[in-house]
Design a protein that fits this description.
The chain is an alpha/beta fold. Helix content is 49%, strand content 12%. The strands form four sheets. It has a five-stranded mixed sheet, sandwiched between helices. It has a five-stranded mixed sheet with strand order 8-9-10-7-11. A two-stranded antiparallel ribbon has the order 4-5. Helix 3 packs antiparallel against helix 14. It is globular, with a radius of gyration of 30 Å. 43% of the residues are buried.
């Protein structure tokens, strides 16, 4: 009897343990999660949202803070993270990140480099995203720049052109009358004559003011802004950089016409010493140079940082010699092939470059819009002497930089040539070295 009782107790005990075990499993699956689990879930959701942010690789001079205003208007500001690199390092950093597989979702590309990145297979074509009627709103030069091999690869933040800025007080003091219309644009001889009159020395013979800064930056800088302004000196002399079919520089960069341009650039810095070679911060606004070639975006910089200078500058059409030309093409946004959320990336791209986004960005930065509707509807981009010159130049003189998948090598060779001339290398050797580099790059295209 005692044994039966003990056996019965053991059975009841085992059943109880079994029920408790099942109950614990059911409780864990059916009841609300603990505070610890809720915290883990929240952290995972935050991490997921952070991971889904669209990363834009950019440099500070493209005004990411102004871009953010366009994104705020579209309700996308919280979905974007800007990753900044100094402009002088930007191109090399972008290529390294593409090669390393850690490039952002969107990258900024200067117009002539679109073909290079597209040819590399680094970009997502926009043909399936971009409505054709909206694309047709771009000015013709921008439409051309966005396309390579029959596809669209990027969308423009803005268009571009530059002018010859001058210091009104210095001109008045030297008795110089500025050109006002495209028909009055100065020749090389007129530029040199004015630069000589405007260059000023102290009692010891040291130059304290130069007549002209003929490029966007001083010659020790290396970025596309240099090529953008240096290339025009070749064009103005009647030369071109590469052949129309993109196969050679013989008879183009390597020509008598271009030698004339290079010699003039050399003379500005070395023979006549009217252009600086030393690094200068705020050279024009600091009144260390009297004339400067740059774009309309500088006016917002002067207003923000040099309020005493805003009434001192004037604008003239670009100079010429045999040809009247203005550069065109500016910075654009493209989706990288490595982007994991291309639909969201395109929404961000669209918010930055559509009519509303581009209007905000261009008005904030004083850049020329790439859209016809904005140019036609916004008084800011048609009124005033500066904008009259810019619009007239774009309509009558626009010329695109060479479209080739090896443009980065072409640009670097040209920049090296012009910078070397500024620092005193002779014209023949500088042109020969640059031509050889360009020819080698063009021959590498398959």
């Amino acid at each position: 009897m005692q044994k039966k009782f003990v056996s019965l107790l053991l059975v009841i005990l085992l059943m109880t343990v079994s029920v408790i075990g099942c109950g614990e499993k059911n409780t864990n699956s059916d009841t609300p999660t603990s505070k610890s689990e809720e915290k883990d879930s929240t952290n995972n959701e935050v991490a997921k949202q952070k991971q889904e942010k669209i990363i834009i690789d950019i440099f500070p001079d493209l005004w990411p803070d102004k871009m953010m205003k366009s994104l705020e208007a579209a309700g996308l500001a919280d979905m974007v993270e800007f990753r900044e690199t100094p402009q002088n390092q930007y191109e090399s950093k972008i290529r390294m990140m593409i090669a390393g597989g850690d490039i952002g979702d969107l990258i900024c590309i200067d117009a002539p480099n679109i073909a290079y990145y597209a040819n590399m297979g680094s970009l997502e074509a926009l043909d399936n995203y971009w409505d054709q009627s909206d694309f047709d709103d771009l000015v013709p030069s921008a439409q051309t720049a966005m396309q390579y091999n029959g596809s669209k690869w990027a969308a423009p933040l803005n268009e571009s052109s530059v002018v010859l800025y001058y210091n009104k007080e210095m001109f008045k003091e030297a008795g110089i009358t500025p050109a006002k219309t495209l028909e009055e644009s100065w020749t090389f001889d007129q530029i040199l004559d004015a630069a000589k009159k405007l260059t000023k020395k102290d009692d010891s013979g040291n130059i304290i003011r130069y007549g002209i800064l003929p490029t966007m930056f001083t010659p020790n800088n290396r970025n596309e802004g240099m090529t953008y302004t240096q290339m025009m000196w070749s064009w103005w002399a009647g030369a071109d950089i590469i052949s129309p079919d993109g196969t050679t520089v013989e008879g183009y960069f390597n020509s008598d016409a271009n030698k004339e341009a290079l010699q003039f650039f050399y003379d500005l810095h070395n023979t006549y010493k009217v252009a600086p070679t030393e690094d200068m911060q705020s050279a024009f606004a600091g009144e260390k140079v009297a004339m400067w070639i740059n774009g309309p975006w500088m006016t917002s910089v002067w207003e923000a940082n040099f309020p005493d200078f805003v009434d001192k500058w004037g604008a003239m059409p670009l100079p010429h010699n045999k040809e009247k030309v203005t550069n065109s093409g500016s910075w654009n946004i493209a989706i990288t092939k490595q982007c994991k959320n291309k639909e969201l990336a395109y929404k961000v791209l669209e918010a930055l470059t559509n009519e509303e986004g581009a209007k905000i960005y261009c008005k904030e930065t004083r850049n020329i819009p790439a859209r016809k509707t904005i140019l036609e509807s916004e008084p800011m981009f048609s009124e005033g002497h500066l904008w009259e010159i810019l619009n007239a130049q774009i309509v009558n003189w626009s010329k695109a930089r060479p479209v080739t998948p090896v443009y980065p090598q072409i640009s670097e060779a040209l920049m090296d040539c012009y910078n070397a001339l500024a620092f005193g290398q002779d014209v023949d050797s500088a042109m020969k070295e640059a031509s050889a580099k360009m020819e080698k790059a063009l021959k590498s295209i398959k």
